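Dear support,

Our group has been running a series of protein-ligand predictions, and this particular one with zinc ion is the one our PI (initials K.S.) wants archived with full inputs and outputs. We had some confusion internally about which version of the output was final, so please treat the block below as the authoritative record. The input we submitted was:
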Amino acid sequence: MPGLKHEVLAPGVALMALKTPTLPPATTTNTLIVGRRRLALIEPASPHADEQANLEAYVQRERERGAQVVAILLTHHHRDHVGHVARLQELLGAPVMAHRATADRVSFRVDEIVEDGDLIALDEGHRIRARHTPGHAPGHLVFVEEKSGIIHVGDMLAGVGTILIDPGDGGDMGEYLGSLRLIRDELCADNTRLVPAHGPVIERARAACEALIEHRLRRESKVISGVGAEGRSFDDLLAIVYDDTPKQLWPLAAMSLEAHVAKLVADGRLTRVGGRVTPAS
Ligand SMILES: [Zn+2]
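Confirmed final output from the archive:
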């Protein structure tokens, strides 16, 4: 369709990257439109009227040729992922579908609860399998488009910027690593392409998962060695573990460190005494 800012990733799978209030350096969130006559919208995220108009114009042209939106699918509850949902729900009368832990965290109505493994059947061989991938958010889902091998991975991987694990908002580093392994081991085939919520499509899917897991585990090793035999204050530990990170990012790094420490405490490797992090005895 000329004039509308979309990219066809595969027959029946179109991508629109639309501006959202997300975390810099990312500026947009990726929406997928899947199917031929029965369409699913994955992650309609933009709260901005001009960007919403782009997606709505696309959908309107599809409807004029007889297509119908039958599902609005959410990866998770964060505000840069749901900005267009309530308006489209009203406009299209299509059901909003999300995990229960997402439904509990949004201000609009979720019409259908999606569980791990649920299948959303579209047409012409297009169907979407939902998998529960907690860690970044408790209700996080990824959506596997089984015909094309394209997976919308939401905030499990980033095409630009980094994925934040914030324990203050339901983030859990142990679960996040488990979910990355699930994507790598169970969902990635040779033709798999990953559509992250932010940034360009990731072509080498398995390698990208692997690199991210290794990156987090290297940071984890740095936490263990930073704690040493005697333990450290949290702030001293932050300076040691994120010595490669610009200081203005340390408030965000502190969240990540919280997530790493919480995982290592849960794993029985560290303990917290007052303001100090020490080896578990
Ligand atoms: Zn998020």
